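Incident log, support desk, overnight shift.

02:14 A customer reports that sequence design results differ from what the structure should imply. Their input is reproduced verbatim below. On-call engineer (initials T.W.) acknowledged and began investigating.
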């Protein structure tokens, strides 16, 4: 099954690269937002003297992963289901797990490239210093948990998409909403009403952004977080729970055809 999964992942990557519009919007839209926010607020600093552009860079990595993993996975699956790709694959020896792993490999590769682009913008444009080795290890497990959670949730939500042409619009609604309430576009989150803070804390994006801020910001910046601490244990727990929830939802909702029940 490993060989089949790798082969499917290669096919998915080639198909993605042939769609220039998808490539541009996937990679450069988050980078464009970072450039806009970083330039507009670049002259400002937090109370700890950390440049706001650096805060945006760290937080936008969470947006990049959500946009790449959740939207790309959900929209791609909806399109494959509608145009009959999944139905045709069902008649081959390829199991559903190999197909999903292939999709997952595409999303993982795109997420790595997306994170590299955003970090590159932060370093080259906003003079963001890179973290030490220990922080990169933390980045690794937060990154992998984030990609897995967002990918599985994208698979699950794709079952709700009735028309693949509307997939982007449907999937981007929770993406945009979560960015504003999760400390990505608005930071610190204490600027939000208490009830919005509590709602945001249920979802993984708030913890993804907080984890990436831990990696790229100095220790003193934790006073800007809710509770005044990085809470990496909570970050790991919440992301782990959402990985399990996403996996269960995948098993329950995945179907080869829109007519399957």
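02:41 Re-run completed on a clean worker. Output:
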């Amino acid at each position: 099954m490993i060989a089949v999964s790798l082969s499917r992942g290669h096919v998915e990557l080639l198909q993605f690269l042939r769609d220039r519009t998808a490539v541009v919007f996937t990679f450069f839209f988050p980078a464009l937002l970072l450039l806009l926010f970083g330039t507009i607020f670049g002259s400002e600093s937090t109370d700890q003297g950390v440049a706001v552009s650096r805060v945006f860079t760290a937080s936008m990595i969470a947006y990049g992963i959500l946009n790449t993993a959740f939207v790309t996975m959900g929209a791609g699956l909806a399109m494959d289901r509608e145009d009959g790709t999944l139905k045709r694959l069902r008649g081959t020896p390829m199991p559903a797990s190999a197909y999903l792993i292939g999709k997952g490999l595409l999303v993982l590769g795109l997420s790595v490239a997306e994170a590299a682009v955003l970090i590159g913008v932060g370093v080259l444009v906003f003079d963001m210093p890179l973290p030490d080795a220990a922080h990169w290890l933390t980045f690794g497990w937060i990154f992998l948990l984030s990609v897995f959670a967002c990918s599985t949730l994208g698979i699950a939500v794709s079952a709700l998409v009735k028309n693949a042409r509307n997939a982007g619009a449907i999937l981007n609604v929770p993406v945009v909403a979560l960015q504003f309430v999760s400390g990505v576009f608005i930071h610190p989150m204490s600027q939000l009403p208490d009830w919005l803070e509590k709602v945001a804390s249920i979802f993984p994006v708030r913890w993804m952004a907080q984890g990436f801020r831990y990696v790229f910001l100095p220790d003193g910046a934790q006073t800007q977080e809710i509770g005044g601490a990085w809470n990496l244990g909570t970050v790991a727990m919440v992301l782990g729970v959402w990985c399990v929830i996403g996996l269960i939802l995948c098993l329950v909702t995945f179907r080869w055809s829109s007519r399957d029940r």
